[in-house]
């Protein structure tokens, strides 16, 4: 019964993250987060920072295994007072800024691994397997992890993202279940889709399907939990995926590179284009047709037309019928799109 309740709470929690756009700023330190975000367009409702605790490399490298879950940049240990992200005061400033601007705060943390030289007074050698993954199945270790989770829940972080990537898949499956039962208000980032509640698997699967079939297909959004457009550079497929995810009011993570594009997307109100059909794809652009008109997604920043004449792929006429077709002297049969617009800047 306890396991069922924990699973139910986890499901309710994930569904409560309804339609949030989460900006991934894990590569930024505290001193850079606020100045950068204040200069961007506000199309997001949450930011996602990296691990706020001191790691084994102090401030010199990003934290993976946590050295001290009570050190957020206020203790001098591991060669520095600050964590890789900065000081405790700077963390509190980021929290304050998020609260003032009605933003949720997400943070990544690795709970299940340590390094040799772990913090005494918290862990014993008996708490680990030989590879220094946490032996949470042992009673004393299970209690210690529960105590750490209790401390995390008291911190001013709205959503913890428990990162278990890189560990053996068998261990990940058990650790993912432990999180669901003992830390239901947390998301899981894993190497297997069935374990993850925050992942890019759905996005990657859709891109792979298009490459293999060379046909335009709509993403299924089959993954539960929070979606992730995991791209450093903007692509036409990433933009279209965002557009359709927003139509379905799914929460998803975006990179800083996508912010200005997403702002344009929000300006055309994706929810108004409910009957959009994905009908054509090329290396540099995608087309969507709906009763409202045509939506075009380009990888370039400038489009030199609003009404477009193009060679017609045979599959396109089957989808949109003949009403948009025109014949032009000395040209091939073409497609005339009287209501077309681009989400990019248009040169008339």
Looking at the structure, what is the overall shape?
A: globular
Query: What name goes with the CATH superfamily of the largest domain?
Result: Glycosidases
Mean pLDDT across every amino acid position: 79
Given this structure, which CATH class of the largest domain is correct? Alpha Beta
Give a summary of the structure in a few sentences.
The strands form 5 sheets. The protein has an 8-stranded parallel sheet. Strands 11-12-13-17 form a 4-stranded mixed sheet. It is 31% helix and 18% strand. It folds into 2 domains: 2-199, TIM Barrel, CATH 3.20.20.80; 201-346, no CATH class.
What report would you give on this structure?
By secondary structure, this protein is α/β, with parallel strands linked by helices. Helix content is 31%, strand content 18%. The chain has an eight-stranded parallel beta sheet with strand order 7-6-5-2-1-10-9-8. Strands 11-12-13-17 form a four-stranded mixed beta sheet. α2 runs parallel beside α3. The chain is globular, with a radius of gyration of 24 Å. It starts with a helix and ends with a strand.
Topology:
Elements: H1 2-16, E1 21-24, H2 30-38, E2 46-49, E3 54-55, E4 66-68, H3 88-100, E5 104-109, H4 139-154, E6 159-163, H5 169-182, E7 186-189, E8 198-199, H6 201-213, E9 226-228, H7 236-247, E10 252-254, H8 259-267, E11 277-282, E12 285-290, E13 293-298, E14 302-303, H9 314-320, E15 325-326, E16 334-335, E17 341-342, E18 345-346
Parallel strand pairs: 1-2, 1-10, 2-5, 5-6, 6-7, 8-9, 9-10, 13-17, 14-18
Antiparallel strand pairs: 3-4, 11-12, 12-13, 15-16
